[in-house]
Amino acid sequence: MVVTPSAPPSSFAGRIHFFDISSKGQGNLQSWSPATLRIRQTLNYKRIPYTESFLDYPDIARFYSTFSIPSNPMAGRPTLPAILHYDHDGVLVKAMGDSLPIAEYLDAVAPDAPQVVPRSVGTGYGRLGRLVNAALRPFKVTMPADVVISKIPSTLNERSRVWFVQDRRQGDDPLHRSPEDWLVGEDVDALWRAWEERGLRYLVDLLSVSRTEDDDDDVVAGPFLLGEKPVFADFVVAGIFTWFRRGSEDDFRRIMAVSPVLVAHYAACEEFVLGQGKVVVWDVERGCVRE
């Protein structure tokens, strides 16, 4: 059984405006970034009302500057997700980026909604943090990220594609190649097999025995990492799988073919992946919704 809230949290005041990265996708298939999908899922799971806008890559730095949002030093560049929180009178309460701090902030401003980073203090996870790190291990150690990154340019509009290729060529590849060329000479099938055997199988084992957030006792297994209710770590996993899916449906099917456990987890998260707020066009020059 999957436990989800049936109504918006009564404790939440105001409105969230959520910022995602644009792509060629239409409707609820436009969202593709594993980082932004974490917050999309968080908002949809909590039933927090929100509007949303999609920004092209070249506009993200300008947006950050307009609202004086500090960049995450780990990212090395301004990136999304980001949110603006307005009160009922339309006054800006908070502007922030980075998925984990945003998730913790949403927990704080909607305390009667399910907590996705339970018992967090600042950016510390406690025991849940160990679970997050365990869930991320298959992606940090063996994930063939270049497989999906090489396909991202084809999913972007031309303006973002040019920016993305140039940025990754300069900053992420010692040979300064375009991402589309990163797999040239690589044994792609070997990359996949290593991930399936040493990464995804570990995740299957982790999902097969759910745990409580309070102690180390095993509980009845559910589709999520902690049983019947998702937490931030679940949204991290589902976001990465969706990232692969937007790049290639065949790649996504290969991931799901590893185990029915992964199929069940993704199916349980999919309504949060696909949910949308009201989409409005953001005027980057004026720093407001375009009328």
Structural class by sheet pairing and helices = alpha/beta
**Low-confidence segments:** 120-125
**Beta fraction:** 5-15%
Using the alpha-carbon principal axes, give the shape.
globular
Distance between the termini: 43 Å
Mean pLDDT: 87
Record the strand order, biggest sheet. Answer: 4-3-1-2-5
What count of helical segments does DSSP give?
Answer: 10
Query: Helices and strands, in N-to-C order?
Result: EHEHEEHHHHHHHHEEE
The level of helicity is 40-55%
General description of the model:
The chain is of the alpha/beta class and 291 residues long. Helix content is 43%, strand content 10%. It contains 10 helices and 7 strands. A 5-stranded mixed β-sheet has the order 4-3-1-2-5, covered by helices on one side. A hairpin with a 4-residue loop joins strand 6 and strand 7. Mean pLDDT is 87; it is low at 120-125.
